[in-house]
């Protein structure tokens, strides 16, 4: 089998769809996305694996699809990637078990000022990680927000600065260890190695938000099938991470329950009558429109389109209120200067932007992907790949900065425990 060499594979196992993206760094140092594939997910609920066999099957399917796509490329331009075999992946972790918290640590360096080096910054980060570590949780990301040298705050990079005490404020994103283990197990079962894992919402933020937005204060709302990922950035740093276990699937389920129809039909109706092209809101001409629903093999009924829109609206309103409550509790709304960027499958629901603006009282815009090049224009516009592409950006970014520690691996706990001991011994 050909080795992947510089290619990085991002695998996003969502509640509704599983995607594989293939990328690398080009000669100019830009991130280049070569290919992306998608299949429908089976065996995942609210971001969490409920059937290992089903999910392993989906992974095999999507990987085969991605490889076939690459193999079909014609011409010498693609000779570098044509024969790519996917043997190992970077994968996303999702679900309500994801937690974000802000933490800090201070290291005494010396009695007299010493020059701060890479080892010191890493020790400071590791000791903060240690303070928030626990046996049942894996740290996925330990993101340094600022360093503090002898009381001076807002230092982005303390290396080369002289000081006696080094402090760090971090945003730590952790996940339930057993859920992470399930993801690794299912990928291994599909015959692949796991090079690293990352929180899905964080991956999406990398391909959808600009540095200016993150600096000014922006919320990313990723509304998928099973979960809403909420991320708040300010002063260039991630300051809040939250996951609410609601999504497009709840709306589908509500349609099925209220109309007494099966889930596939409810999903089809939802997509047909409430996507961005369905003229939602054009009440005069569409609200009286009849929709035929199939109750069983020989039993059909008709309902008013308005009736279905009411079911959707009610559920959507409930979800937006939950999001608002979460943002209020976290004290975020007043700190936002660049509004809300919304992505995930639910962002395609017609009327969602207006509804969100009204509920949250903030400017809302649709997420668009950026920060990479691709010879495929359909990739550039397909926001469904934003998580997989963000994952590649993260993986390549880590490789480039040679700071792989920040990219969590599946055996992160044993590494942390080893590091904890080191930090602990240095402390006492
Ligand atoms: N055009 C559309 N109009 C309305 N809803 C849509 C549209 N396209 C997709 N959706 C809904 O978006 C959801 C899928 O979103 P997405 O692909 O972001 O989920 P996921 O990443 O698989 O799940 P999660 O991240 O929550 O685990 C489904 O509930 C689907 O019905
Ligand atoms: Mg998703």
Can you characterise this structure?
There is one protein chain. The protein is α/β, with parallel strands linked by helices and about 425 residues long. It folds into two domains: about 10-95 and about 180-195 and about 370-410, Nucleotidyltransferase, domain 5; about 210-370, Nucleotidyltransferase, domain 5, CATH 3.30.420.40. It is about 40% helix and about 30% strand. The chain contains 14 helices and 21 strands. It has helices spanning about 50-70, 80, 120-130, 175-190, 200-210, 210-215, 250-260, 265-275, 285, 305-330, 350-360, 375-380, 385-400, 410-425, and strands spanning about 10-15, 15-25, 30-40, 45, 50, 90-95, 100-110, 115, 135-150, 150-155, 160-165, 165-175, 195-200, 220-225, 230-235, 235-245, 290-295, 300-305, 340-345, 365, 375. The strands form six sheets. The chain has a six-stranded mixed sheet, sandwiched between helices. Strands 16-15-14-19-20 form a five-stranded mixed sheet, sandwiched between helices. It has a four-stranded antiparallel sheet with strand order 7-12-9-10. Strand 9 and strand 10 form a beta hairpin. Helix 1 packs across helix 4 (about 175-190), helix 7 runs antiparallel to helix 10 (about 305-330) and helix 10 packs parallel to helix 11. The longest helix is centred in the last third of the chain and has 25 residues, at about 305-330. Mean pLDDT is about 85; it is low at about 1-5, about 275-280 and about 400-428. The structure holds adenosine-5'-triphosphate (ATP) and magnesium ion. Magnesium ion (MG) binds near residues 14, 200, 224, 344 and 387.
